[in-house]
Design brief:
heterodimer; A: about 325 residues; alpha/beta; FAD/NAD(P)-binding domain; 2 domains; seven-stranded mixed sheet; five-stranded parallel sheet; 6 helices; 17 strands; B: about 220 residues; Glutaredoxin; 8 helices; about 35% helix; globular
């Protein structure tokens, strides 16, 4: 039972539809927040439109690779980011989805509550969402054992056996967190670890964690709820069952770019294609962070990307004058 | 102060300064073993200090059974938000609203005070056509960053339409109920015990399920 207070409300102005902004940023994760900070400091009329202020980092229990913070919760780091941006009183709106952007006289942002926001430039910092396994049973048992947020749903599996799919930092961190709650954790990954050695070493010390590398997940099985998975050892081709009440899928991310696909150039991974300055193929529309084709999705890179884009927007706006 | 430090209280005071009218918080506990009743009482006692417009009234679910029935309180601890005229506004928090859930608690307090987020016209129109009883349960965990958004939405719908009742339920405190409703991902939203979905979805999704539930 957590008695922490995760207070993240703050008083701030809201973004309005009756104004033409210099810059509207779509997304409130590290890239979006840092873009807002840089843009505001340049004196731009800037606002943030976001689904979830804080973004995906909020789902991370601990961040240990952000320079200056040896160990901090994902939420704590984002709180610092938000507080910093809030000091400059950047208006924002939260819990709205952007349905579409239009490139008219001004850039127009259409949200799911049927409002249209106008701006001279846009930075898309919509981030990414968890990738699915794509095996039989995943949809059927989704939310019936198959989960995509370990810190949200982990507490519901106290003293049960669970599986973590994946071999990157997110997967190993999820396995570490779950090992404190669940009776047993089995980490299953199709190849070798991609996680940082420092995390793997911690995982290897856990007595209730079993690790199965070079193992494919073939199917999720169960009746009303999942009861386990069918897996295959890639070397021996031997198939076997692992019984578990929960499966936490941590196998990477997919960009949140589908609503922009008619306007913007995407690559084969559906990432928005940007140049060195974060420009997309449309003048005045920039993109930063995990939604772009920039390699290595890391918090610090998304943050830097946001700053770069804001500066590029400032230059772009100067050319309009 | 045991639960809230001075910094948090100061922040809360600033946020609650947006309240228009008074809000009374009715806390229902019980004498028999109740896992989180004491800490909820302690937590809320400190929290209401943050605004002169907030008042905490303490009830016992058994001794004050008539009132508990009027507000539909079935478990403890349960918090019912009442407006300045002590009217029941059909929203409850079952289990301690700490962790992330403090955010939905704050928004709901501000909304009950008469200020806060306004619903889009399109949603209001659809809501005005709901004329049969609807109950919404939103199962949450306190470590879940997406959960307060779903609770806020469900509560706003209940505040807007007299036929809708909305309950936040903390899944770990009410483990048996969570089992009964097959909660294995949060936020899980259950409408009239029959229609359900998972996630902090847009208002449209809430309304679709509500509309299905009353056919």
């Amino acid at each position: 039972m957590s008695l922490n207070i995760n207070l993240n409300k703050a008083i701030s102005e809201k973004v309005t539809t009756d104004k033409i902004y210099d810059l509207l940023i779509i997304g409130g994760g590290p890239a979006g927040l840092n873009a807002a900070l840089y843009a505001k400091r340049k004196g731009l009329e800037v606002g943030i439109i976001s689904k979830d202020l804080g973004g995906q980092v909020m789902d991370t229990s601990s961040v240990e690779n952000y320079l200056g913070f040896p160990s901090i919760t994902g939420e704590g780091l984002m709180q610092n980011f938000k507080d910093h941006v809030n000091e400059l009183k950047v208006p924002y709106i939260e819990y709205v989805d952007v349905k579409e952007i239009k490139d008219n006289e001004f850039k127009e942002i259409v949200t799911d509550d049927s409002k249209i926001y106008k701006s001279k430039a846009i930075i898309l910092a919509t981030g990414s969402k968890p990738r699915k396994l794509g095996v039989p049973g995943e949809i059927e048992f989704s939310n019936k054992g198959v989960c995509y947020c370990a810190i949200c749903d982990g507490p519901l599996f106290a003293d049960e056996e669970v599986i973590v799919a994946g071999g990157g930092n997110s997967a190993v961190e999820a396995a570490l967190d779950l090992s404190k709650i669940a009776a047993k954790v089995t980490l299953v990954h199709r190849s070798s670890f991609r996680a940082d050695k420092i995390l793997i070493d911690q995982l290897l010390k856990k007595e209730n964690v079993e690790i199965k590398l070079a193992t494919d997940i073939l199917e999720i099985v169960g009746e009303k709820f999942m009861t386990g998975i069918k897996a295959r050892d890639k070397e021996s081709s031997e198939e076997f069952m692992i019984s578990a009440a929960g499966l936490f899928v941590e196998i990477g991310y997919l960009p949140n770019s589908e609503q922009f696909s008619s306007l913007l150039e995407l690559n084969d991974k559906k990432e928005i294609v940007v140049d060195r300055h974060g420009k997309t193929n449309i003048d005045g529309i920039f993109a930063a962070g995990d939604v772009t084709d920039t390699p290595y999705k890391q918090i610090i890179m998304a943050t830097g990307d946001g700053a770069k884009c804001a500066l590029a927007v400032n230059d772009y706006l100067n050319t309009l004058k | 102060m045991k639960y809230l430090n001075e910094d948090v209280l100061k922040q809360l005071s600033e946020i609650f300064s947006a309240m228009t009218n008074d809000v009374n918080v009715a806390l229902f506990t019980k004498e028999e073993p109740c896992e989180t009743c004491e800490e909820t009482k302690g937590f809320m006692t400190e929290l209401v200090e943050a605004s002169p417009k907030l008042k905490l009234v303490h009830y016992d679910i058994n001794k004050d059974s008539e009132l508990a029935e009027e507000y539909g309180v079935k478990m403890t601890p349960s918090l019912v938000l009442l407006d300045q005229e002590n009217q029941y506004r059909r929203i409850k928090f079952n289990g301690i609203p700490s962790g992330h859930e403090i955010n939905s608690f704050i928004s709901s307090v501000i909304a009950v005070s008469g200020k806060g987020q306004k619903l889009p016209d399109e949603i209001k129109d659809r809501l005005s056509k709901i004329e049969k009883p609807v109950n919404i349960k939103v199962f949450v965990t306190l470590g879940c960053p997406h959960c307060p958004g779903a609770v806020e939405k469900a509560h706003l719908l209940a505040l807007e339409n007299e036929n809708i009742v909305s309950d936040m339920i903390e899944a770990q405190t009410f483990y048996d109920l969570s089992e009964e409703y097959n909660v294995s991902s949060v936020p899980k939203i259950v409408v009239n015990d029959k229609f359900e979905f998972v996630g902090n979805q847009p208002f449209e999704v809430f309304l679709e399920e509500i509309e299905k539930a009353i056919v």
